[in-house]
Amino acid sequence: MNNLPPILYFLLLSTLLTQLPLSQSSYHEYQEALSKSILFFEGQRSGYLPQDQRVTWRANSGLSDGWTYNTELTGGYYDAGDNVKFGFPMAFTTTMLSWSVIEFGDLMPPNELRNSLVAIRWATDYLLKTVSQPNRIFVQVGDPHADHNCWERPEDMDTPRTVYAVDAPNPASDVAGETAAALAASSMAFRSSDPGYAETLLRNAIKAFKFADSYRGAYSDNSYIRDGACPFYCDFDGYQDELLWGAAWLRRASSDDTFLSYLQNNGKTLGADDNINEFGWDNKHAGLNVLVSKEVLEGNMYSLQSYKASADSFMCTLIPESSSSHIEYSPGGLIYKPGGSNLQHATTISFLLVAYANYLERTSQAVTCGNVNVGPYSLRQQAKRQVDYILGDNPMGLSYMVGYSDHYPQRIHHRGSSLPSVKDHPEFIACKEGSVYFNSSNPNPNVHVGAIVGGPSQDDSYDDNRDDFRKSEPTTYINAPFVGVLAYFAANPNFS
Residue limits of the Glycoside hydrolase family domain (predicted)? Predict the structure, then answer.
């Protein structure tokens, strides 16, 4: 090779180098992805938008929310590509945004930490309204059946803004328990920057938890609520995990031994030992075990050892080298669970991997998975594979985060993104008039930067199809845990 003319040698060397895989830490701009993952929430806002709104294709919407109850219920987030405010997934989104700040906020650039807190507060200001009346919790605003029958901008909504409330003694342990978790976690996120607001959040978290625990049961068991919540956000997996989850967050936010006793005394009866290897808006088991394990690992609470044992078991299921590994992966390496919106599993599980790795590292511990010892590095490595897959290291070569890289979904299932902005098309677009945009093969006119779609099929394939909502619809609860994960890798691209 040394006998080749210099120009041929250079060309050959260049060709060989381009065929080598780029190191993932140099290829992915995790800081850019972090910024965009937070920006996404501004495109999901309901209510009066502020002067510093950065997503300029959005405008005010849902300004009469709550009027049927003579209550002001403006604000909060639309959960996905529709125009409904579902309290159950919104509260989980808030919990995960807050947990992202609690665990990784010190790694964020100051401006992104501020943007994260703004995103949390947009939700908590609304959640405080939902628990503002004695013995009542507002769980949803908007008739989803009417909404889903239309394709219209949130700014044009003329579908019923039905208010769904649960009054004692009717149960809503799941939504109230998750709301308690959200308010408790967010109180920790705001403790240093706004202690007065943090105290308000914690006080209302305790009130929400009391409602959840006093009137036990699933909110969707109520026939009136079921008609609105189902089949979208029914409680499919039971309300018991939300009671433990709410108590765990209140324990962490308040250090009150009352909630420690609750976790100790109610763990078995509420299914803490079920060891369900799942984490998301409906099932908190794996997240609960990781959260509680922090105190156990720090040597403070041996009485909660069963929670840590379950967390260890969950981590072992994620490690391919472990004899207990049973999480399904796509051929390209994506964590896969049957059902729609698969990336919600990849982002939540990645968050738990990185959070647990931090807990292990701080206490110089590892997880024993049969004959394999699994330390923080292995857990982070598993999480990074999921992150990089989402950002483009996949068989499609596609970033599943809109606006990141040059190759991302163009036709996401999202009303506001797919219809022309009111700034470009101020005329009213009625319910069925939006169908022409829904059925169009053109890219969405408004790029919903930072939105992470539902994701590919089990075989890693993805059709950029607005109609296929299971794959092409973004949700707030896919993005929320990813904020924390990206914060970690942005600060530690070459982790060890």
Answer: 30-486
Please determine, for residue 282, whether its predicted confidence score (pLDDT) is greater than 90.
yes
Which pLDDT tens digit goes with each residue over 84-99?
999 999 999 999 999 9
Residue 16: pLDDT band by 50, 70, 90 thresholds?
Answer: very low
Mean pLDDT of 129-133: 97
- Higher pLDDT: 226 or 23? It is 226
Judge contact between 58 and 51, C-beta under 8 A.
no
Q: Whole-number mean pLDDT of the chain?
A: 92
Annotated catalytic residue, options 28, 413, 414, 448: 413
Contacts of 357 (CB under 8 A, 6+ apart): 376, 377, 379, 380, 383
**Banded model confidence at residue 275, pLDDT cuts 50, 70, 90:** low
**Distance between CA atoms of residues 76 and 82, nearest Å:** 13
Active site residue 345: no
Is there a catalytic annotation at residue 473? Answer: yes
* Single-letter residue type at 197: Y
Residues with Cβ within 8 Å of residue 450, at least 6 apart in sequence: 35, 36, 37, 38, 39, 40, 43, 401, 402, 403, 404, 479
Given 152, 242, 312, 473, the catalytic residue? 473
Residue 356: enclosing H or E segment and its boundaries?
A: helix 343-362
Residue environment code for 54-76, b if the CB has 16+ CB neighbours within 10 A, otherwise e = ebebbbebbeebbeeeebebbbb
Catalytic residue among 256, 433, 464, 468: 464
Give the pair of three-digit tokens for residue 121.
Answer: 């507060």
* pLDDT tens string 378-397: 999 999 999 999 999 999 99
DSSP state, residue 459: T
Give all domains of the chain, ordered by start, each with its CATH number. Answer: 26-52+67-491 (1.50.10.10)
Helical (H) or strand (E) element with 379:
helix 376-391
Quote the pTM value.
0.93
- Whether 155 is catalytic: no
